[in-house]
Design goal:
alpha/beta; 9 helices; binds succinic acid
């Protein structure tokens, strides 16, 4: 059974890979991903300078997922440019993820990764965890500025990590910008920003940064992630690849993203909870579902959501 796929013309040997976020900030963690069933090595979103991230506690498991406000703890982009050389040649694409704090940062980092060993460059316009810096992708004129500045910097495919949108006018606006720039892929979705989880025993939020407001992850967000994948697929299919991310923890979840139109899925919360075995497990479960339904490849199903 072929689970192989491609994103922006870059071949992936499987449909399931890690997401930028958990357990991918150090070379040791990235080596674990390289040696796992993940079909790509996606690195932590990086900034121009190293960051410690937000104060602890900044991650808390919830009944159906997690809430986090990590605040982009990372080693600074130069470290990831170096890691890419060490991770290349493992038979799976290496994906950089850049989270600029200014337009100049985005230009500097995308330019540096264009000259590096990475295969894909994800431009993260959707981190909800930086106080005073709302996600760029909720501001379409700032998004246009970033796209104008980064899309022509080299030949490696550039993609956008997007926040959830909740109305078709916003999907239309985002897709209009994407279609008018050289964007190779979108990653839908980042966590749902500014959720609040409260512990009734302590009578306090479960995380400290931003007064307890943080990104909601896991099962809670899967329907929103599926809706965004579908909305982008309906507008961009065939022109722009889609990574689906948000609540994938089983082969059945991955199959739903495939029906919605995702070219591949990324796993974050299940990887945080279960470790690297999750990638092979989810891929095997997906394979069994495809076999049972008589499909011989992911391409025969991609985007083919039926009508009720
Ligand atoms: C974080 O480090 O705060 C999470 C990354 C993101 O939301 O993009």
């Amino acid at each position: 059974m072929a689970l192989n796929t491609s994103v922006a013309g870059v071949a992936l040997g499987g449909y399931v890979c890690n997401a930028s976020g958990p357990r991918d900030a150090t070379l040791e963690e990235l080596e674990v991903i390289a040696n796992s069933g993940s079909s790509a090595i996606v690195m932590k979103s990086c900034t121009r300078e190293p960051r410690e991230g937000n104060e602890e506690p900044r991650y808390s498991r919830l009944a159906f997922g997690a809430i986090q406000s990590m605040g982009l703890p990372n080693l600074g982009f130069k470290a990831y440019v170096g890691f890419a050389s060490q991770l290349a040649g493992r038979g799976k694409p290496v994906v950089a993820s850049v989270a600029g704090l200014s337009l100049e940062d985005f230009v500097l980092m995308v330019g540096a990764f264009q000259d590096s060993a990475v295969d894909l460059i994800e431009v993260n316009l959707s981190c909800p965890n930086l106080a005073g810096k709302p996600p760029v992708a909720y501001d379409f004129s700032r998004t246009a500025e970033v796209l104008d500045a980064v899309c022509g910097l080299g030949s490696k495919p550039v993609g956008l990590k997007l926040p959830p949108y909740y109305d078709f006018v916003h999907h239309d606006a985002a897709c209009g910008l994407i279609a008018s720039h050289r964007v190779g892929f979108v990653t839908c979705i980042n966590s749902i920003g500014n959720a609040l989880a409260i512990n009734p025993e302590t009578e306090a939020p479960v995380i400290r940064p931003k007064g307890g407001f943080g990104g909601l992850c896991g099962d809670y967000i899967k329907p929103v992630a599926l809706a965004n994948v579908r909305a982008f697929f309906e507008r961009l299919a065939g022109k722009v690849s889609i990574f689906g991310v948000g609540g994938v923890k089983s082969g059945s979840d991955a199959f739903e993203f495939l029906l919605a139109g995702a070219d591949a899925v990324q796993v974050a919360t299940a990887f945080e909870n279960e470790g690297p075995a999750c990638f092979g497990r989810i891929a095997s479960e997906l394979e069994l579902i495809l076999q049972r339904k008589g499909y011989s490849s992911v391409d025969g199903v991609k985007g083919r959501l039926k009508r009720v």
